[in-house]
Sequence to fold (119 residues):
Amino acid sequence: MLAAVAEANKRGWPLNVAVVDSGGNLVIFARMDGAQLGSIAIAEHKVRAAAKYRRPTRIFEDAVQKGIVYITTLDDVIASRGGIPLIENGKIIGAIGCSGATGSQDEAVCTAGAGTINK
Fold:
């Protein structure tokens, strides 16, 4: 969480950042000053999808862009970048999700946060 918020601050992107455990339960949430209110629910949706499906939400966005739209019929899918599983010693321990900027910006901030754990 701290690394993600630091990255967002460095770039001047006010975001909402959520972290869940491996079961998709919220562990910590931060709403930066100026972050969009509507993005609170989106950050939580991204992080839960990343934990539930055990993959970055970018996978769903890429599928929709390739015309594989049935993916959107799966429960809890969000076809938007910014949700990344957290992996420690080869096991998924949770996920981090960001929202409030563009998809690529959300993903960059989540990647910074996940990079402190993912090995």
User: Anything to note?
Assistant: The beta strands are 16-21, 26-31, 83-88, 91-99.
